[in-house]
Amino acid sequence: MKLSLLGLSAVLPSAFALWPLPTGLSLGTTPLTLAKGFDIKISIHNAPADLVAAVQRAKGYLANDKLQALVIDRGASSAGAIAKAKSLPSLTLSLASTANVTSISEEAVAPIESRVESYTLTVPADGSGAVLKANSTLGLFRGLATFGQLWYDWEGATYTLSAPVQISDSPAYPYRGFMLDTARNYFPIADIKRTIDAMSWVKINTLHWHVVDSQSFPLVVPGYTELSEKGAYSASKVYSPSDVKDIVTYAAARGIDVLPEIDTPGHTSVISKAFPEHVACAEATPWASFANEPPAGQLRLASEATVNFTTGLLKAAAGLFPGKFFSTGGDEINANCYTQDNATQASLAASGQTFAQALDTFTQASHAALRSEGKTAVVWEEMVLANNVTLANDTLVLVWISSADVQAVAATGFRLIHAASDYFYLDCGHGGWVGNFPTGNSWCDPFKTWQHAYTFDPVANLTESQSKLVLGGQSLLWTEQSSAENLDATTWPRAASTAELFWSGPGGDVDAALPRLHEEVYRFRQRGVAANALQPEWCALRPGACDLTA
Amino acid sequence: MKLSLLGLSAVLPSAFALWPLPTGLSLGTTPLTLAKGFDIKISIHNAPADLVAAVQRAKGYLANDKLQALVIDRGASSAGAIAKAKSLPSLTLSLASTANVTSISEEAVAPIESRVESYTLTVPADGSGAVLKANSTLGLFRGLATFGQLWYDWEGATYTLSAPVQISDSPAYPYRGFMLDTARNYFPIADIKRTIDAMSWVKINTLHWHVVDSQSFPLVVPGYTELSEKGAYSASKVYSPSDVKDIVTYAAARGIDVLPEIDTPGHTSVISKAFPEHVACAEATPWASFANEPPAGQLRLASEATVNFTTGLLKAAAGLFPGKFFSTGGDEINANCYTQDNATQASLAASGQTFAQALDTFTQASHAALRSEGKTAVVWEEMVLANNVTLANDTLVLVWISSADVQAVAATGFRLIHAASDYFYLDCGHGGWVGNFPTGNSWCDPFKTWQHAYTFDPVANLTESQSKLVLGGQSLLWTEQSSAENLDATTWPRAASTAELFWSGPGGDVDAALPRLHEEVYRFRQRGVAANALQPEWCALRPGACDLTA
């Protein structure tokens, strides 16, 4: 039985925590418990180590989640049924073909077009073993995440009331991301790893890592270590090559590709600490005349030396990341900064180029450097809307300024990622952060609720062929007002809402989704992620009772 | 030298973390370190145990804070000066009169009119000992908090660059509070205690504990234990009498009074779980016709049995709390609930009372019961503005709906606390939480920034005599969308902003305050409280550089 997200909502039991909702799902009403000796078996010869480790983690969650169902009695009235239920002895993982078994980690960073995340999961009600099948270890990993969400705890019994379960699942969109800015404020590696774990639970497959910006340069780039030595907030607030390897390895083993971003030519003030010759209007004041936020500073893109510096930096940085995508940014280029910069004006005069031509040269050189490292360039929307820049056909464009720009970006024919501030910016709505501005409000006010993001239509106003350009979407956390201290509660469960939108597809109903999202919040907490409360617990235990019209 | 808050800002060094700013302060420019054998001595015969404990905690903070100054080099350029600095051997605490030495805990819960929180603190630059003097142990405790904020760490040296320090400090307002709602979502005791510690660091002296509400009844009240047995979210999500004693004892030892609130007659749906006979329109639907949020339910105030139940409950609850204030709430009474309630209509008909008369009778009985337990009643503003209720002259009124209501409340002649939603509600601006309402926004949008609260004028539009009715103010955290997970970051540093407003007095300048508030955020984190980032760290290290016009 294949149900649409909308149709499905009507038949879901009240305690049922799958998130994102599988695209094909059939549920029964038979209680089933995990057997005392329950085991997860891998029926794959020479199973990859990261799959073995994923199974171990999955077993850990099953043992430790201890999530009580979000019903008024938390499951007490099911105790009898649970006690009498048949028990599930095992879950067996297998691949459709074992001709070429690749690891989760390899598949997670493979070109997005070639990734296979689909799987089927069968959990019989009769006491026979459950079966998880896929065409890829990545698919098996996604299925393990689903399996781990099927279970509740009642006094030590791990149970579901919804056996048999038959799932045939695959994502609506291949790109489901979360962007973290580690430049405005630094995030310790442990916090990034915890976030990666949480992302994997809801099948997000890309960490868009906005690693550096004008405020700090925490990335230690081989050959360019002065950047972090002089530009990190401190010697300990850095990501060394081994830290990066740790993070990308940790992510890949959890089915997550890391899309790094070194934003250019804007958002680069901090480069002036180590290489002042490459930065125009570095820390120029008043900053508002030179940048959208302090400190000002942009790469002297018209300078051949700066082009060479940038391409060298990008190549060196690219070597740290196993994935195919690499973002060169390209947002918020400030014209006045260059107009006022004598060096840039001299370079333009010497070469006879216009600014637009120089930007084109700079961007082509940057992207060629990345391509030589096997990377596909990613840019913010201005690079196709505001600037006339030559880009390779496979360039990926991030729509950020407004969802109203999606159509224009799609019209350029480039593939795009939804990241519009009016739906997906997690930082909006916390007031102004600029100093000496007591009446300042958030530029992208109001706060973007999970409900608002959930109702987004990824193909609104697009033609059928334009719709195919949409690779997916992501939540974004810019961190002017964030740090490790509020990371979890600011990100979760809202980023999970967007994860479901792009895995299960649009058209979901917020009313039907809310009980499941509550359960995801409670499960996250059981796993050590401080997800934010959606409602009073009274409401969480009573699906629908706190609806507007209830 | 006594400086106004505004005048003072100009002369503060850039690394200077006192918060709230002392009302009388003189600083030097001489470096001074804490001596290796630095000790805090109590020159009081038979010093109270809680003062001894407070000194131990203060020494712990001095040893463990390890807060580097928020300057670009974090103090490196001061290393030479620090190495050569004289060192402070000791801080000695003494009382002006030791005739009647009372404990911090006793003084913290004494009538607000009789509390003495002032102190003087002298930290010489010449290597002689520092002296903290007060007329009360509570004053000494406030001075200890200040002393603990004077110091930075540089490679193991604990130093200030601002000796000698001469402080003569006393609060502008006697009431400086923080309200926590533990009914919409439950908060573990450890989280409440951590919040109490944080409150004490910024000299907040009242925890307004909105302990129960329509959604849950976690308070275990002797003689009325059915309320929590049937109304708490779970058997573990309660505050037993020993838990309450633990909390009020912990708070009092930190100079904090606990003002409990059992909101009546509205916000009492949950009482119907144990005592259905006392609740009108219990869980009636559509809830929006019967209450401002689900579930509906109000005490049958016209029933003599319900009056007796309520007075009994209040008396029993009052016995759990050592302080003088006790709130009976009185906000958001829903008329339709009573109009539709046959029992209430029958009671009114039998007694010949109007609804207003019945509310008056109910309230007078409730307040008389509290008075018999030595309590002073506290109410929300509707009890003096919307309803014609007889209240004792010493009743304290909380202004919550809008700061525009302050003048009207003051005109009634009652003492008041500033708690207006348009300045002090920490929960605003996080979108709508009611289900099935994807476009819903926060009713009190936008988010209340620390800057906005900081610019509040407590006596705006009040006459001189009305101004004397203002006891102080507080931040408030209603927890429909909050739980332990986001408690720290949602509360801090914003509640500290309000704490300074009511300790140091209004008129402070947000631009001058920001660097100090940054330092308070960083110090909070060193002490284990996850205070929210105010700005990128780049800004935190460069006072003024991220101002709007910088």
Fold blueprint:
2 copies of one chain form a homodimer.
Chain A: H1 5-9, E1 25-42, H2 49-64, H3 79-84, E2 86-95, H4 104-108, E3 119-123, E4 130-134, H5 137-148, E5 152-154, E6 157-169, E7 175-181, H6 189-201, E8 206-210, H7 225-231, H8 241-252, E9 257-264, E10 279-280, E11 298-299, H9 304-318, E12 325-329, H10 335-339, H11 342-351, H12 355-372, E13 376-380, H13 382-385, E14 396-399, H14 406-411, E15 415-418, H15 421-424, H16 450-454, H17 464-467, E16 470-477, H18 484-491, H19 494-504, H20 510-526, H21 537-540
Parallel strand pairs in A: 1-2, 2-4, 7-8, 7-16, 8-9, 9-12, 12-13, 13-14, 14-15, 15-16
Antiparallel strand pairs in A: 1-6, 3-4, 3-6, 5-6, 10-11
Helix pairs in contact in A: 2-5, 6-8, 9-12
In short, what is this structure?
The structure is a homodimer of 550-residue chains. Chain A is α/β, with parallel strands linked by helices and 550 residues long.
Account of the protein in words:
2 copies of one chain form a homodimer. Chain A has helices at 5-9, 49-64, 79-84, 104-108, 137-148, 189-201, 225-231, 241-252, 304-318, 335-339, 342-351, 355-372, 382-385, 406-411, 421-424, 450-454, 464-467, 484-491, 494-504, 510-526, 537-540; strands at 25-42, 86-95, 119-123, 130-134, 152-154, 157-169, 175-181, 206-210, 257-264, 279-280, 298-299, 325-329, 376-380, 396-399, 415-418, 470-477. The radius of gyration of chain A is 24 Å and the shape is elongated. In chain A, helix 2 (49-64) runs parallel beside helix 5 and helix 9 (304-318) runs parallel beside helix 12. The model of chain A is unreliable at 1-11 (pLDDT under 50). The two termini of chain A are 31 Å apart. Helices cover 34% and strands 19% of the residues of chain A. Chain A has 2 domains: 5-169, Chitobiase, domain 2, CATH 3.30.379; 175-505, Glycosidases (TIM Barrel, Alpha-Beta Barrel). In chain A, the strands form 3 sheets. Chain A has an 8-stranded parallel beta barrel. The first copy, chain A, has 550 residues and is of the alpha/beta class. The interface between A and B is large, with 73 and 73 residues. Chains A, B: Residues 1-17 form the signal peptide. Chains A, B: One of its GO terms (molecular function) is beta-N-acetylhexosaminidase activity. Chains A, B: This is Beta-hexosaminidase. Chains A, B: Keywords: Glycoprotein, Glycosidase, Hydrolase, Signal. Chains A, B: Belongs to the glycosyl hydrolase 20 family.
